[in-house]
Amino acid sequence: MPVKTTAEQHQPGNPIFSKERRRLAHARFATVLKILNEPRRWISVWFLSYALLGAISSGLLPILLPLMIVGLTHHLSWVAYVMGGFNLGLLSSPLWGFLADSKQWHRPVFFTGFLMLIIALALMPFLPGLLPWSLLALLAGAGTSAVATVASLFIVEFDPKDHWESRLGWLQTFNGAGQVVGLLVASAFVANFKMGLICSALVLIPAIWLGAKGLPAAAKRFDWSAEIGNQMRREIDWRLLANFGRPELLGGGVMRFSHHLSLRGGKRFKEVLSTRFGRFLFSWFAVAFGVAAFFAYFPVAMQKAYSVAPALTSSVYAVTAAVALILYSVGGQLSGKFGAGRVYRWSLIGRLLGFAVLLAVFFTPIPKTFVALLGFALIIAVWPLQSISGTTLTARLTPFSQGAAMGLFNASGAVATVLGTFLGGPLVQFIGYPALSAMAIVGIILGWLSGHNLQAENVPLATEASANATAGSTI
């Protein structure tokens, strides 16, 4: 019997490769369960401060800020510009990473980020106006970015290498759980958003105390002069981390894993334009661009266009996000069984159906409140599948190191989110709320079409190993 070549072994539908893919998926799932069953080993006190950041930046602020803008000014387009300022502030991550590494200002940057966010939230209710709100939102986004950037660096620079994935996984789980709590609390403040923003600022004060108590004061393992970014990009198992729950961030995910991943990976952009990885990046960009305006406006849009009370919107979002946190492990299993490419496109179909329901409400005589809530819940629920399959595709399709690829992946989503948010302002102003769903549908369709036949599940496993092995020389 002739022996199959390596190329033949990795043809679509080959049972040998499918079994290996499923085996790796099951192994990652078992590793995630083991890590989650040992919380005391991996959790630090300061993780609670990161949970509070998630509660405010990903929970309370996205609900209360749009409601306050429309409630006080009745200018719909202002929501896009103010929330766009917040997203733009998130792109300051490379600056904070540079200060932390070059000046050894890890703790000062962490605490300064919280102070910036506290100041912005406390002043917003008392300084109405497009320019003050936009500047304060920019400050809040920059503060959020500072905390998130340095949080990952505290683990990567101060903990042993074999602890990185476990502690980063728990860190982002705390952030995701914080978002759920923040959304539930936001429902209590929708009638008094000014008080909600002031209380949000006060809640962050204990976060500074928790950070002062639990953050490492000095490096335990690495010399300060060492280039941690190369090690981080080369040695972290990104697909394992993708199995841990996290919120769908306003900034398109640029906060997730520090500054090293967004700027340096960008230098490789020209190399991927004509590859399948480049096609996937365009798909991810199109989807993020399309849905950005909706996520900036959703509490206002659900109230004004679908007659859903903001408290109910916040509660449904919280419950759905909580359930979705569990779906990350399911997404990993599905990617292993059916391939990340298929799961990614399935997730886009789910979101497409959700936005199609929201758009259909405007043109058909159906009960808009109940149906809109179903569409909204579906949009939130499929995020874990999109997130984990997108991360897996990044790792499998990249022609160079996974770390540099994650930089392009996060940066594409972040830039698309900023651009899409700003564009949403004039669209809503001149067309109305249907423009939000229509814009999302167009972006998702473009993403689905460009994501066709990526066949990432058939990429030889050796490609991943070679990408990691050459990380130091290719970045």
Question: Could you describe the 3D structure shown?
Answer:
This protein is mostly helical. It has a single domain (16-474), classed as MFS general substrate transporter like domains (Growth Hormone, Chain: A), CATH 1.20.1250.20. 76% of the residues lie in helices and 0% in strands. The chain contains 23 helices and no strands. It is globular, with a radius of gyration of 22 Å. It starts with 5 loop residues before the first helix and ends with a helix. Residues 1-16, 219-230, 250-263 and 456-475 have low confidence and may be disordered.
Span of the ends, CA to CA: 43 Å
CATH class: Mainly Alpha
Q: How many strands, what sense, and barrel or not for the largest sheet? A: none
Mean pLDDT: 77
Structural domains: how many: 1
- Please write the string of helix (H) and strand (E) elements: HHHHHHHHHHHHHHHHHHHHHHH
Instruction: Specify the helix fraction band.
Output: over 70%
Contiguous uncertain segments of 5+ residues? 1-16, 219-230, 250-263, 456-475
Record keyword descriptors for this entry.
475 residues; mainly alpha; 0% strand; disordered N terminus; disordered C terminus; transmembrane; MFS; Sugar_transport-like; transmembrane helix
Helix and strand layout, with pairings?
Layout: H1 6-9, H2 15-36, H3 39-42, H4 47-73, H5 76-90, H6 93-103, H7 106-123, H8 130-158, H9 164-186, H10 193-214, H11 228-235, H12 238-241, H13 260-263, H14 269-272, H15 276-304, H16 310-338, H17 340-360, H18 368-381, H19 383-397, H20 402-430, H21 434-450, H22 461-469, H23 471-474
Helix pairs in contact: 2-16, 4-5, 4-9, 4-10, 4-15, 5-8, 5-20, 6-7, 6-8, 7-8, 7-10, 8-9, 9-16, 11-20, 15-19, 15-20, 15-21, 16-17, 16-18, 16-19, 17-18, 17-19, 17-21, 19-20
Transmembrane segments: 43-72, 78-97, 109-127, 133-156, 168-189, 195-212, 277-298, 310-331, 343-364, 370-393, 405-424, 430-449
Keywords: Membrane, Transmembrane, Transmembrane helix
GO molecular function: transmembrane transporter activity
